[in-house]
Amino acid sequence: PPPTSYVEGYVLELDDGNGGEFREVYCGKETICTVDGLHFNSTYNARVKAFNGTGEGDYSELIGLQTAEVAWFTFDPCLSGSELRFSEDNFSVSACEGYEHRVALGSVGFSR
């Protein structure tokens, strides 16, 4: 929409972190959002456009967004097995006994 028009919402698009195709990661009225599925220590190009009932505006200039170098998380002993021992600050975990595989859940999920 033209600068003097009423804005109903915004569309945020990010590239793939390698200068590839843009994908829509947010569409709504808010000017703040959280984007999931980004890789650590990566830079993404972002662009925004506004829209209203008569159409969409032009894209903004590109800006670079840098993600954190490493993941920060804490373990959640309430959601993990009782056979695990957690430190007081929930930053480390160990098995009480044995060598079987166990699962400890945390505040952040990881996937490949």
UniProtKB/TrEMBL annotation:
Signal peptide segment: none
Top-level taxon of origin: Eukaryota
A Gene Ontology term for the protein's cellular component: neuron projection
GO-annotated biological processes: axon guidance
SUPFAM superfamilies: Fibronectin type III
Domain Fibronectin type-III: 1-70
Coiled-coil segments: none
Any Pfam family: fn3
Protein name: Fibronectin type-III domain-containing protein
